[in-house]
Structure formats: C-alpha cells, structure tokens
Automatic annotation (TrEMBL):
Alphabetical UniProt keywords: Membrane, Transmembrane, Transmembrane helix
A Gene Ontology term for the protein's cellular component: membrane
Main subcellular location of this protein, as a coarse class: membrane
Cross-referenced InterPro entries: Membrane-Transporter-like (IPR052706), SLC26A/SulP_dom (IPR011547), STAS_dom (IPR002645), STAS_dom_sf (IPR036513)
Name of one Pfam family that matches: Sulfate_transp
Localisation per UniProt entry: Membrane
Name recorded for this polypeptide: Sodium-independent anion transporter
Start and end residues of each STAS domain: 410-505
Membrane-spanning parts: 33-60, 67-84, 90-108, 120-138, 153-170, 177-196, 226-251, 302-319, 325-342, 373-390
Record's bilayer topology term: Multi-pass membrane protein
Length: 505
C-alpha cells in the first residue's frame, strides 16, 4: 500500500547517495538544456538558468521528492513560435503568466484529477516518452548539420556502448557510486586520457555565464500584449502540468509512495514565475533526469537541490571542465534511461487486456512521438472516456416483476447517463403496463442531466396513459434536479451512493 511522502533526517549513506545522484543529474542536464534552448531559438544560458531555477524551486517546495524539473523540450516547442514571431521579450511574460495559471490549478486543488488518467494512457505516455528520449539522442551524432561517419562515428559508438555497459554492470560490483556517474567519469577519463577526437559538451555551446539577474519584461503592459501571450501561457501551463503530474504519478508507482499533485502544481508555477523574472525559458518536470535520479537511489529533496546548485556552479566556475565531457557518455546514460523507462511489460499484456486499451496505449505512444505529450494524453483520455461510455451504455438493464398487488416493478441495473438514456427508455412497456408502476434505482446511478431528463420523459409518458409511476431509491442530488416528477419520488438516504476523487494527503 502506498504511503504518504515524508521528509526524514538524512544519515551519512543517504546524504552521499543524494549528493552523487544530484551531481549525475546536473551533468546530464547540461546538454539537454543547451539543446532545448536551440529548439526555442534562445541563448543556451536562457535554458540553463531555467533549469537552475525550476530545479531548485521544485526540489525545495514541490510535491514529489526525487523528481527533477528543468528546461524541457515540451516547453521549448510551445514557446518557439512566440519567440520567432515577437522576440524573446514576449517569452518572459508568457512564462510568468503560465506560472500564475499553474498556481491557480494547485490552489483550486485540481491537481488531484491527474489520478483519473487511465492506466492505458499512462503506459502510452511512458512508452512514448521513452521513444522520444531515445530518438532525441541521435541528433548528438551530428556535427555542423551532418551525421558522423567513418572512424569518428565508430569511436563515438564505442564510447556510448562502454557507458551503457558500465551502467548495466557496475551496480553488481558496488553501489557506492551511482552507475551513471561512474559511466560519465570513466568515459571522460578514457576520451581525455587517450586524446580521442569525439564531440564534447563544449562543441554544442559555451556554458560560461554569471548569476541570473532580475529582469522586468520589456513589453507594453496592455490588453494587446495579454492577447498575444495568453494562448502561449495556457499551453505552457497545460503542457507543463501534464508532463509534471504524469511524471509524479510514475515515480509514485516506482517508489511506492504518494506525492502531492496540488503542491507540485504550485511549485511549478512559482518556478516558472521566478524563471520569467530571471531570464529563463521556463520548464517542468523531466522524466529522463527524474529516472536517472531515482535509479541512482535518490529519494529525498536534497538530490534536486544539489543538482540545481551544481548546475549553477558549472555555469559560474566549472564551465571549462564540464565542456570537456564527451557527448557519448551522456548519450549512453540517456539510452539506458530510455530503455529503463519503457514499459516492456506492456507487450506481455497486449493479448490479455481489452482491445480498446491496446488501441489507446499504442495511439498515445505514437502521438507522443509524432505530435506532443499534451495532445497525446488528451486524445488518450477522450478515447478512454468514449470507450467507457459505450461499454456502460449497453449495460443498463431492467429486471421486471409484478407483486401481489398487481404493481409492475422495474429494478434498474447499470448507470443512467447520456449514453444509456435511449436504451433505458426502451425498457418500458407504457401501453401494457398496469396502473401502478414502481421503478427501483437501488442498483443504478443517475449520472447526468440526460439521465434526469430520461426520468422526466418516463413520467410524462406514463401520465399520457393515465398511469402512476413511482421512482424509489434515487439519490438526493437527482431528486433535487427532478422538476416534473418530484411528487412521484421517494427518497431513500440509505441507498444514496456518494463518489469523490481522492485528495492528496
């Protein structure tokens, strides 16, 4: 059973794990932050500053210890058209407004609804992101817009494989040092020690810079500006929360603990606001870096804090050293992350689950790869909802009997809602039924306005034939909305079911 996330004191072993995991994550963040900055069309420092701010804020105040946030490809793709059309000055207010919207989601406690995402959508999300992570690494094999070939390609592939082998087998020797960090150190030592000519972090861009400085967006503060940035702010807020909360749910399952979606929403919002005011491109949770952190053994907030501070120190003091790390080492780490993230068990269950779940899983995976995460999850939820509606629409039925007083009883089974309203109406023999009819909802639930309207129509139809119909065991909320049949309804509070969504502890 999942337990609530609790913060406890660190012992020496835990602290060492947190520190080493944080350093590993920080090193892996560098090339991704640079790459996402290029996608968005901004300076690498804009992505690095966002990674520092988002990582630090969410590590301190977020709802999921061990989860890593930073500049992401999802946000970069969203803001790219705004930057290309209006310039970077409009990026920052869009990120700030997106952060405000995320705080509202958390304050209104809407983060809990991420737990309603079907498992098939979660599997599709995980598999799709694993493919995206894996696919994204191939761009690292390019120099000046062309793929490597010949000896440089073979050397880089050899180093990538070496990093993957170290990650796979080093934990069998010792777990004192996280295997991803050992892979980065070993591959770097070999490449530098033997003078191997292979792409390095510094070949992408320089990461040298100063402290983030407070800025105020240089845009007109009027309605026109609001209309320009609002669509992008909504996308930033939506995409960021979807990716963050789904990553939170995934880590919940791995660690068998429970994070707080609402607290994470607020922290993501605060992080984006601060990022916007310090020249960052904003961001959200990063499943790749989060998996590196969790697989390295980190479970506390310290790993995220150390990762953010270490990344800042790279920018301020250690840029010349970090820029010497071979890209191959980081590619190997991310390849193993992709392999570890992919739910291989989904292949084993394909012939054991309903066809609709299989279709949803595959569709979400493909759309995540082809389009983006937000669209994929939305499509998956809609498909699952329609499938659920259809399955329940055909399940409504009525057991019929006549008692010793000559009254006809209809015992309704299954939910009454927009999908089943027509089938429900067809269950009744208005013309041939006796004078007294009783419709029992003990085993049914009226779910929406369509169901209530169906009850009203049943009442009207029986009245046309001069017959009396009584509805029993309807829940009180349905009775309150029934305007035409109120006088024929009996309320039974003992059979009034109540449903709610689980709240974060």
């Amino acid at each position: 059973m999942k337990q609530n996330v609790q913060v406890s004191n660190l012992n020496a072993s835990d602290l060492k794990t947190e520190v080493l995991s944080g350093l590993t994550v920080a090193i892996a963040l560098v090339p991704e932050a640079i790459a996402f900055s290029f996608i968005a069309g901004v300076s690498p420092l804009v992505g690095l500053y966002a990674a520092v701010v988002m990582g630090l804020v969410t590590a301190i105040g977020g709802g999921r210890p061990g989860m890593i946030s930073g500049a992401t490809g999802a946000i970069a793709v969203v803001v790219m058209p705004l930057i290309a059309d209006k310039g970077i000055n409009y990026l920052f207010p869009a990120i700030i407004l997106g952060g405000v919207l995320q705080i509202l989601v958390g304050a209104l406690r809407l983060g809990k609804f991420i737990r309603l995402v079907p498992h098939s959508v979660m599997l599709g999300f995980v598999n799709g992101l694993a493919i995206v992570i894996f696919k994204a690494q191939f761009s690292q094999f390019m120099v000046d817009g062309e793929y490597l070939n010949g000896t440089p390609l073979y050397m880089m592939l050899g180093l990538v494989v070496l990093a993957m082998v170290v990650i796979q087998f080093f934990p069998k020797l010792t777990k004192v040092v996280p295997s991803p960090l050992m892979a980065i150190l070993l591959v770097s030592a070999i490449a530098i020690g033997f003078g191997i000519d292979t792409p390095k972090v510094g070949d992408m861009a320089s990461i040298e810079g100063g402290l983030p400085s407070l800025i105020f967006p240089d845009v007109p503060l009027n309605m026109e500006t609001l209309m320009i940035i609002l669509p992008f702010a909504l996308k930033v807020a939506g995409v960021g929360l979807i990716e963050s909360l789904l990553t939170l749910t995934l880590i919940d399952e791995i660690t068998e603990t429970r994070g707080s979606g609402n607290r994470e929403s607020v922290a993501q919002g605060i992080g984006n606001i601060i990022s916007g005011f310090t020249g960052g491109m904003g961001g959200c949770a990063m499943i790749g870096q989060s998996m590196i952190n969790i697989q390295s053994g980190a479970r506390k907030r310290w790993s995220g804090i150390i990762a953010a501070l270490a990344l800042l120190s790279f920018v301020l003091f250690l840029s010349s050293i970090i820029e010497q790390i071979p890209i191959a080492a980081l590619v190997g780490v991310m390849f193993m992350v992709a392999i570890g993230t992919f739910e291989w068990s989904s292949f084993r269950i394909l012939n054991k689950v309903p066809v609709t779940d299989v279709v949803v899983l595959i569709t979400v995976s493909l759309v995540t790869v082809i389009e983006d995460l937000a669209v994929a999850v939305l499509i998956g939820i809609i498909m699952s909802a329609l499938s659920f509606a259809w399955e329940n629409a055909v399940r409504i039925r009525a057991r019929k009997k006549t008692d010793e007083f000559g009254r006809k009883h209809y015992e309704i089974y299954g939910p009454l809602f927009f999908g089943s309203a027509t089938n429900f109406f067809e269950k009744f023999d208005f013309k041939n039924d006796p004078k007294e009819v009783i419709i029992d909802f003990t085993e049914s639930r009226v779910a929406d306005l369509s169901g209530i309207e169906a009850i009203n129509k049943i009442n009207e139809k029986y009245e046309q034939y001069g017959k009396n119909v009584t509805f029993i065991h309807l829940s009180q909320d349905c009775v309150a909305l029934l305007d035409k049949a109120k006088s024929h309804v009996e309320i039974d509070h003992d059979h009034d079911p109540h449903y709610s969504v689980v709240y974060d502890a």
